[in-house]
Amino acid sequence: MKIAVCVSHVPDTAAKINIGSDGKTLDPNGVTFIVNPYDEFAVEEALKTKEKIGGETVAISLGGNANKETLRKVLAMGIDNAVLLKDDSYRDSFSVAKALAEEIKSQNAELVFFGKQSVDFDNSVVGQLTAEILGYNCISVVVSFSLEGNKITCEREIEGGKEIVETTLPALITAQKGLNDPRYASLKGIMASKKKEILEKQPAAANNSVEIISMKKPAPKQAGKILGTDATAVPELVRLLREEAKVI
Amino acid sequence: MANKILVFIEQRSGKIKKSSFEAVKTASDIAQKISGSVEAISIGNEIENLEKVGGFGAAKITHFKNADLENYSPSAYADIIAKYSTENNIDLFFFAASSMGKDLAPRVAVKTDSGLAMDCILLNCESNDIIATRPIYAGKAVIEIKLTSPKKVFALRPNVFNPGIPTDKKAEVSVVNISSPNLSVKVVDIKKSEGKIDVAEADIIVSGGRGMKGPEQFKLVEDLAQVLGAASGASRAVVDAGWRPHSEQVGQTGKTVSPNLYIALGISGAIQHLAGMRSSKYIVAINKDKDAPIFQVADYGIAGDVFEIVPAMIEEIKKIKS
After folding, report:
1. What is the DSSP letter of A137?
2. Are B145 and A125 in contact (CB < 8 Å)?
3. SS3 assignment for B12-73
4. Which residue in B297, B289, B311 sits closest to B262, CA to CA?
5. Taking CB atoms and an 8 Å cut-off, how many pairs form between chains A and B?
6. What angle do CA A222, A225, A229 make, to 5 degrees?
7. 3-class DSSP assignment, residue B267
8. Quick check: A138 and B107 CB within 8 A?
9. Which of A95, A97, A196, B46 would staple A129 via disulfide (CB 3.0–4.6 Å)?
């Protein structure tokens, strides 16, 4: 079976975010980019599944040349092949999903893993959109995954607990932290990944329905009061919470 | 365009979630500005108090009923909403951006060919356009967006929009029995975390970080949470160290929260943590290091030892609560 995993290339979570001069985009100067953290869980699950049932894994990423860095990293973790859908223009979630769905279809992948969200635009929808476009069954925010024959059973994180969800192939799963412990690339993996070819393809043009009007940093919060340095400040703190903030 | 708005009413164990009332009220405020109308849809088995959505501004609610739909089924729920929307010419869809709403809204968007604005924290109308504000990079920045598609889906971050005080108005309730729903993806069981309040839904959160020194000391975090009726949260450092479960993690690779009160104990305030909690209405920080970045976002702080201050807080709060 062919197993696909979709990966995105995002600013490091430790990065400070600055807005570009157009007031609508990120200023990438000085920002380190990484494999989207949730996608590492997706890659690990794809590798574990292949180890169990055999088959072939392919990583797909949409973006500019810089995304090759992320694709190399997942190849080094053990993914067999990589495809870059080369387009660094702005795409909303829908346009991203359409391009990914097209590629998954042409790869004939029956099982697909995504991270539950990219930590850049935080929409948490590209997986579900892609599945819906493909007509695949989809379970999102998954913290445990099992495949027996054609049947999939997952645990999905919800408020205050977990849902046990069942479905069948073909399916798309979005990974939440806790699903597994992503492996580190071995030296051998790193060497091998350098020799692998990243297939470049041109996705169909975007057809966006989300127009960005502005991008801003949130208004800075006014620093508050330091009430003291020991327990003698506690009665005043509790009084303020009760009388000024009215939250307890 | 008639601007017909459909609000999805989410239920768990037959009870309507508060975030759905927030969505109805917000939809109803928007409807007034764009001369639209608001109706609601719910899916499940028995649901209490459906008529209550009337008090928040929905004239009617249609409940699609089947015993197999008591738990969430993404496939069935999406099919039912899409079919209803075609038959009733719905233009705009409102969801709460809860675990269920985030899963369901994109599916409905594909089925109805709608543009999608997720996790909105503010909606404004400019002429007939709805301008949505939503955080990106876990709140390190915000964008204003406009959907250019004829049909649109909005998912609202829970606990941000004020549901207001409901009127006595009752919605007209119709119940439609559904036979053989599409259960190709189905929730077969729910495991609840015993007796715990989830950080994503809590009004008050007490979180601990590295400054708690070890997993056993988190008892103090839980004790303070308990006297406040709060949820316990954690920083990424302590989740990665295995002291606390990931479901408690607040920050960029955990949950983004905006409770009324966030109390940070022994948390220095890494940028990814601040991103996840800075929109809390009030923030209290207790940390030994007076220069810790957490104090830059805190409304009130004590720059001292958590092991001395937290027990005193517990005593003081017990005193005022008794």
Report:
1. E
2. no
3. ECCEECHHHHHHHHHHHHHHHHCCCEEEEEEEECCCCCHHHHHHHCCCEEEEEECHHHCCCC
4. B297
5. 262
6. 140
7. coil
8. yes
9. A97
Distance (Å) from the alpha carbon of A197 to chain B's nearest alpha carbon: 31
Nearest alpha carbon to residue B221 among B235, B206, B231, B234: B206
**What are the chain B neighbours of A120 within 8 Å (beta carbons)?**
136-137
Q: Which of A148, A179, A184, A186 is nearest to A42 (CA)?
A: A179
One digit per residue, the tens of pLDDT, for chain A of length 248 reads 999 999 999 999 999 999 999 999 999 999 999 999 999 999 999 999 999 999 999 999 999 999 999 999 999 999 999 999 999 999 999 999 999 999 999 999 999 999 999 999 999 999 999 999 999 999 999 999 999 999 999 999 999 899 999 999 999 999 999 999 999 999 999 999 999 999 999 999 999 999 999 999 988 888 789 999 999 999 999 999 999 999 99
What is this structure's pTM? Answer: 0.94
A225/B300 CB distance under 8 A:
yes
Instruction: Give the pairing of strands A137-148 and A151-158.
Output: antiparallel
Using left for φ > 0, alpha for ψ between -120 and 50, and beta otherwise, residue A146 falls in: beta
Instruction: Check B148 against A17: CB less than 8 A apart.
Output: no
Which residues lie closer than 8 Å to A169 by C-beta, 6 or more apart? A110, A111, A137, A147, A150, A152
Rounded to whole angstroms, the Cα distance separating B131 from B129 reads: 6
Beta bridge partners of B283: B262
Domain architecture of chain B: domains with CATH: 4-177 (3.40.50.620), 199-321 (3.40.50.1220)
B219 three-class SS = helix
Bridge partner residues of A174 (DSSP): A114
Whether the Cβ atoms of residue B52 and residue B7 lie closer than 8 Å to each other: no
Is beta strand B11-12 parallel, antiparallel or unpaired with respect to B4-9? Answer: unpaired
DSSP SS3 for B287: coil
Cβ atoms of B284 and B261 within 8 Å: the answer is yes
- Which residue in A157, A167, A214 is closest to B143 by CB distance? A214
DSSP A14-33: TPPP-B-TTSSSB--TT--E
Alpha helices in A108-136 (DSSP H): 126-134
Burial A159-189 (b: 16+ CB within 10 A, else e): bbbbbbbbbeebbbbbbbbbbbebeebeeeb
Number of residues that this document lists for chain A: 248
Domains of chain A: 2-201 (3.40.50.620)
Cβ–Cβ contact A219 with B under 8 A: no
Which residues 63-122 on chain A approach chain B with CB closer than 8 angstroms?
92-94, 119-122
Distance CA A154, CA B188 (A): 10
Q: What is this model's ipTM?
A: 0.95
Residue-level pLDDT at A104: 98
Strands B4-9 and B92-96, by their bridges, are: parallel
